[in-house]
Each structure stands twice: as C-alpha cells, then as structure tokens.
Amino acid sequence: MEAAFFELSGISKYFAKVIANKEVSFSIQRGEVLALLGENGAGKSTIMKILYGLYKADEGKIFKDGKEVKIHSPKEAMELGISMIQQHFSLVPAHTVTENIILGNVHGIIEQKFYQGEIKKLAERYNFDVDPNDFIRDLAVGVQQKVEILKALYQKANLLIMDEPTAVLTPQEAENLMHFVRDFTAQGNSVIFITHKLKEVMSVADRIIVMRAGKVCGDIKRDETDEIELSKLMIGKELNEIIQDDQQIKVDQEARLEINNVTVKGKTNVPSLNNISLTVHKGEILGIAGVSGNGQQELCEVVCGAILPTSGSILLDGEDITEREIRARIDLGIGYVPADRSRDGMIMDMSIAENMLLKSSYDGKWQKRGFIAKGRLNQYALQEIQEYSIKAPSPETIVHGLSGGNQQKVILAREVDNGDKLIVFDQPTRGLDLGAVNHIHQVILNERAKGKSILLVSTELSEIFALSDRIAVLYKGEIQGIFNRAELTTEKIGLLMAGFRVEEVSQDAC
Amino acid sequence: MHAKLKDLLITNILAIVLGIIASGLMLLFLGKNPVSAYAVLITSVVRDGYTFADIFVKATPLMFTALAFAFTYKANLYNIGAQGQFYIGAVIAAAGSLFFQNILPSGLALIITLLLTIVGGGLWGAFIGFVKARYNSNEFLVSMMSTYVALAIMNYLLRTFLMETKGEYPQTDALAASVWLPRIIPGTRLHIGFVLAVLACIGVWILLYKTPLGYRIRAVGYNSRAASMSGINAKKLYVLAFFISGALAGAAGFTEVNGVQHMLVQGFNSDIGAAGIGIAILANGSPIGIIFAATLFGALKVGGTIMGQMSGIPSSIIELMQGFVMVFVILAYFVRTRLENNREKRKLQKAAV
Predict the structure, then answer these.
(1) Are A68 and A147 in contact (CB under 8 A)?
(2) Which residues contact A238 (CB under 8 A, 6 or more apart)?
C-alpha cells in the first residue's frame, strides 16, 4: 500500500488542566472523506488545529506522503495543501467575495477584473451560485460557507478540513454541501469532517475516526458499521434514544404566555421580529424551529425583558408585562436559559454557588442580617450539583473550569428554580455531548409535566421534534406557520426554514 | 493551594528585590554607591520610633486612595480621579473643622466633619458614575479631568473664602487642637486615621465578598451583560460604586487635614492619587493586600526623604524604585500564571503515563 496522504502519529497535546489529545494516530488517503466523530471536548478540533498549524503538539509527528513535515503555522499548512474552514468563518463582512478570497495572496495593484473572472470560473466548476462582487455582509450563512470553500480551493487545497460545517445550514444547504464534498474528493482530494452528527457521518464519510476523551477509540470503514455502533464508541455506553413521549399529555387550553403582534426593530430600523403572535399554553412545549439568526435571540429576549418591543404586547397569565423590567419578570416566574451561556447566562470567574445566586441576589432568602447567607447558599448549590449530576468537586468550584455540559446544567438548575411559570430555552443543548443532551431533555419534559410552559428555541430539528407539542417556524423574523408536531415532516420543515411559504411547501411536498 | 501561596510570596518578594537591584543600578549612573545608599535607607527608617511611626502616617492616605481605585476596579470601572476626590475631601474637612471647632465639642465636630467629607468625596465621585450611566461617557477621562476641576475649586477657595486671616499665602488658618485627630502613640505623629484606614480596608473586603451589594458589583465587573440579563441594574451600580470610591478617597482628605497638616495648604500631597493606583495594582486589587502594599510605599517614602537629606542622593530615586517594583510585580503575575500552568501540565503528563 502506498504511503498515506497525511498521517498523524502519536500526537499529544496538553493544555493547562486538561489533556486535549493523547497519542492520537490516524491517516487519510487521497480521495477519501474522513469523518472525525466525537462528543464536544473529545479533542477533535484540537487535533485538526494541530494539523493546520494553529496549535503546536507537545509530542508526536506528522507525515505527508511518508515524509515527516513540521507545520508551525496555517501558512505552512496551506503550502502543504491543507485548508481548514473554522466553525466561525473568518471573512471580512465589509469586503466583497473576491476581496475576501484573494486576501493575503496579492501584492501591489489589484486587478479586480482578472481575479473576479478567475473566481467566477472556479465557482462555476463546482456549481456554486456565488457572485464575486457581492459583499459578505449581504450573504446568507450558507453562501458565506461557500465563499470559505472557494477560498480554500483558490489556494489549491488538496485536504479540506471542515469544523462542524452543517451546524449553521438548512437541510437543503447541507445536502448541497454533501454534493460538493463527493465532487471534490472524486478528483483525488481529501476531506476531513469534524462532526458529532451520526447521520451526516453515515451519509458522506468513507472512513470514520471516533474520538473520546482525547484519544482515538475507533477507526472504521463506513460500510462496516452502523449508527448504533458509532454512538456506543462515541459516548462509551449505550445511547439512550431521546425520550419521545408519544402519549401526549393533554395540553391545558389556558394561555400562559401571549405574544401579540410584537415587532422589534434594531438600530438599523430593519425589524428583527416582524409582527409576531404566539401563544404558549399551560403545560405546553412550543418549539421554535429555524436557522439561527432569524430572530430567535430577539424573541427570547423580548419575552424575558432584555429588549422592549417596538410595538405589540406581551401577556403572562393575562397580565400585561410588555413594559416590565427583567427583574420584575424574574420575580413573576420567567426563567431563561440563553444560547450563549458564557456571555448572557453566567459569570465564568465566579463559583457555582455564586452563579446560583445571580438572579436572586435581591431576594431575602439568601441573606442573613444584610450579608450573604453563605452556608445556606452552598448547601443549596450542593443539592443542585447532586440533583443535576454536575461534575464538580464543590459548590465553590469556579465555573470556568467546568465542561460546557456541566456549565449548562448549572444554568439549567438555576432557571428551572426561577421559572415557576415559564422557561425559555434558547439552544439548550447546542454543543453538548449526548449524555448531557438526554439529561437536559428529561429535565425539560419533567418541568412540562409539572404544568410549566416552555418556549424551546432550537436549530436541531431532532430536538424540536422530540420535545415540542407544537412547532412554530421562524424565518427572517416572521412566523412561517404554527403546526402540531404530527403535521410536519423533516422535509416540510426544512423548506419552511429556508423561507418557502406554507402554500408552496404543501404543493412541493405532496 | 499551598504551592500557589508559595508562588505568590516568592514571586512578589523577588519582584521587590529585583526592583531594588534595578534602581540600585540607576544609582551607579549617578556615581553613588547603591549599597551604602540602601544601608542609609534601611537604618534611617528604623533609627527611632518617630520615624518608624511615620511610615504608617504616610501609608494612611495611600490606603484610602488605593482602595478607591481597587473598589471601582472590581466593577471593571476605572477611577483614576482619586486625587480630585481627595482634594474635595480635604477642602470639606478644612472648612468643616474651621466652622465646627468653636461651636461643637471636639468628638462631635470630628464625626460630623468626617461624614461631610465622605459624602462630599462620594458625590464628587458619583458624578463620574452618573455621566457614565446616563450618557455612556468614558469614566477614565471624566475621572481624570475631574481632578483638575477639583484642584481649581480648591485653589479658588484658598484664595477667597478659606484663605488665612493674614491673607498672605493660599492656605487656611491652622485648625484648633480640638479638631485634631487624636494621636495613638505619644511622641509620634501616628494618629487614629491609620486605624480608620485599616478598618476601611477590612470593611471594603467584607462589603465586596460578604454582602449582596458587593456580589452584584463584582458580577457587573466580571460580566456586565450577564448581570444585566439577570436583572441587576448595572447603571445604578456604576453610580453607587463611584460614590463609595469617591467617599474612600475623600476620607483621605479628612485624615490628612485633621491628622497631619492641621490646615489646608494649596496643592499638598499631589501624588497620592497616582501612588494609590500603583498600590492597588501591587496588591492585585485585594483590599487586605493594600494594607501591606501601602505600608511598603510608606516606608519607601519616609526612607527616601531621609536618604535625600543625608547622602545627597536625590529623593526622586525612590519614585524610580517604586516604579521598578511595580513593573516587576506586574511581571510576577504572569510568571505565576505560567508556573501554575506548567505544574498542571506536568501533573497530567505524569498521570497519563
């Protein structure tokens, strides 16, 4: 057998306090699609960043075509034909597609016309519908990703590393991406896919490397495995099927949260929410599906009071709370688990106990003669740590050092207690491993069973389908329609998320 | 934890030693022998009780201004206007004392003057927080410029309403002995203001770490967005934090006027605001650490003055030394982080084998 295109041998990487990779070895052949599968924090991104020259390995070697290579920077990686598309794109919004693609590779006077022509040709070859003159800021995320890919192709990459490429795409866009991957590898190039989605892996990969806790724990051909085996390898134990309750609890028809004709306009006067009306009943989970960035965050914030609507009204149990401040809404029993926990939900440099206090520091129950009742607070935090099986040595542990899943559980524990009536979940399981996802889903269902109302925003369709009683689709700040769960199929919802109207969808889907 | 504390002590002591060595090198450039200069420095501060006690006299206002900086720093705000708040405090302390000294008994006059000083300095500081909260102005600039305004107000008052009866110099009349702060050690200048300063350090520590208000201030400091999303009114806290900060700096005016100067002289103690920032950094923002850092600076100040008188070495060499010590202390912080990381790494490597 000829030498592998690229081979990683015995790579180890230590960060302060964690082992990111321990003796990782695998190879990739020319023309192969390799999936790097593993839970978050398994070390997938780290090993790829080492290959791409962003991190320096503490131990181990990298070979190209059998010869050892040293990669110290992304520049050197690109010279070897490696290109990586990060989860967060590195494009300049105020520049055009062309300018972004040639960035860093031109000197002197730039002949725009010449480059535009070249990029247009390149785009046509791969059937990419991209205009080289468009500004990045005007493009949808899916198109931006294509620009990133074009950038890699323009630099003549033979090995394309993609970090969670489908996380931001609609099902249709993801399908297009898969077409490209097959097309690209058919010409002798290779692709490494970093993902934790089993379905994607099965549909596109030739070979699968499974990683767990920084080590490789499986190197399998796609044809020789199935999703169940992969998930076992990935989490190291049997995957619990998401608890889907088919016997729907009868939803109380009494309204808990009513959003009436709410519009939110930002500074640019473009409405991020446009005349939205929703009702969440008591004991109901209303799922909000949609590709992220279509007004989800604004919807959540308008409910919890962080932004006030430009027009329209919000009612909780019939009481108008449109003008109420955040603190008043917390006191009324609205809990909020934000999507960006490190920015909006918690204070990374404080302890678990202190984070539990974040929303109730005014509340007398945690005070003793004007001081913080530390004993009581720690005891409460300890109780929550046990109840939510948060992996932390004590309530005084700084949350910064916890894994993402455990941080999320801290917020969850707090918000479930705060939200007596309504809990807003924005992407509650994004980026978490399966064990944590199942646990969080169970918590959401339990709270619903207690009669709380739940607004669940998620870009994971499986999550929306597994938990919601009714599903609303959000597109560009408008509701595309509200459906009972049984009325929707994955295909139909995908089209709605991509902006098709209900009328169009029913024609196409039938 | 043990290793961490060891790191902290060793790196900080090393930083101070390195600072002394580096400024010793500077002495060589002046053609002076650093060893004998330091010998003078050390022997001079311990030569008698009066001089030794003076270390703490000098440390007293520094503790207050360092606390003023450290307190807003915890809310991720920068109050570099402690000098101005100190002057406002000093003006009020002088005016209050002169007004009350003849109509109230000594203790009562002192307490009322102290309260007025605190409120005055506090309001002067709160203005910075207010424009920050209301108009989103840059507190760094506003606090800096407010110092010049305070200075101008002081100069104006010293030439008009507060000017001495002789009308010769821009200074007030001497305060009556009844409104002097009591001495705690007879035969020295050490006054009860030192005790107030230490209590203020402990009080600020308790406020920050044991009360809901301090908790909220720190929460806003670490992540104001998450704090706001949790119903904490960050803007209100900006005003409050600046009020407390200004009040602390103002209190320094009281202890200096009533404890040391016994009058108000134009432009006195013109560097304690800046020194306070350095001390707060040296103490890594810790109110308890400030007690020690301020004492160190007090010792350098006293020793430096004497050194200047005795050996013909310019006393400004002491400022150089303070600067070097500060730079090395800041470097020490990064060294500690590095040591900590390496230790954790080694532990992992060992455990993994």
Answers:
(1) no
(2) A232
Give per-residue pLDDT as tens, B223-278. 999 999 999 999 999 999 999 999 999 999 999 999 999 999 998 888 899 889 98
**How far A231 CA lies from chain B's nearest CA (Å)?**
25
Residue A239 has pLDDT above 50, yes or no: no
Residue B80 has which token pair?
Answer: 């570099």
Backbone angles phi, psi at A280, to 5 degrees: -115, 125
Q: What stretch of H or E contains A49?
A: helix A44-51
**How near does any CA of chain B get to the CA of A343, in Å?**
6
Residue B131 to residues B17, B119, B126, B143, B309, Cα–Cα distance (Å): 43, 18, 9, 10, 46
Domains and CATH numbers, chain A: 1-81+158-237 (3.40.50.300), 91-155 (no CATH), 271-350+402-509 (3.40.50.300)
Tens-place pLDDT, residues A105-154: 777 788 888 888 888 988 888 888 888 888 988 887 778 888 988 988 88
B341 burial type by CB count under 10 A (0-12 exposed, 13-18 middle, 19+ buried): middle
Which DSSP helix (H) or strand (E) runs through B184?
A: none
Say whether residue B353 is in contact with chain A using an 8 A CB cutoff. no
Cβ atoms B320, B24 nearer than 8 A: no
DSSP B273: H
Whether residue B74 lies within 8 A of chain A, CB to CB, comes out as no
What span, in angstroms and rounded, lies between the C-alpha atoms of A415 and A55?
37
Give the SS3 label for residue A19.
Answer: strand
Q: What is the CA radius of gyration of chain B?
A: 22
Chain B contact present for A362, CB below 8 A: yes
Q: Can you say whether the dihedral through the CA atoms of A398, A403, A408, A413 is positive or negative?
A: negative
Helix (H, G, I), strand (E, B) or coil at A161: strand
**How many CA atoms lie within 13 Å of A163's alpha carbon, on the beta-carbon side?**
19
Residue A178, pLDDT above cutoff 80 = yes
Q: Are residues B1 and B103 in the same domain?
A: no
How many structural domains comprise chain B? 2
List, in sequence order, every beta strand (DSSP E) within A282-388.
285-289, 311-316, 319-320, 334-337, 367-368, 371-372
Q: What is the DSSP letter of A292?
A: T
CATH number, domain at B273? 1.10.3470
Residue B289 falls inside a structural domain: yes
- Domain of B212 in residue numbering reads as 45-312
Q: Which residue of A has its CA nearest to B353?
A: A22
Q: Are B25 and B299 in contact (CB under 8 A)?
A: no
Three-state SS at A341: helix
Within 212-251 of B, beta carbons closer than 8 Å to A belong to 212, 215-216, 218-219, 222-223, 225-233
ipTM attached to this prediction: 0.83
The amino acid at A375: G
Report how far residue A476's alpha carbon sits from residue A457's, in angstroms, rounded to the nearest whole number: 15
Return all residues near A310 (Cβ < 8 A) that are at least 6 apart: A263, A264, A265, A271
Identify which of A121, A207, A205, A130 has the alpha carbon closest to the alpha carbon of residue A166.
A205
Residue B37 lies in a domain: no
Would you tell me how many other CB atoms lie within 10 Å of the CB of residue B128? 34
Q: Spell out the alpha helix ranges (H) of chain B.
A: 2-29, 34-45, 49-74, 82-100, 106-135, 139-159, 193-210, 212-222, 224-229, 234-256, 272-282, 287-311, 317-352
What is residue A279's three-state secondary structure? strand
Question: What pLDDT shows up at residue B351?
Answer: 61
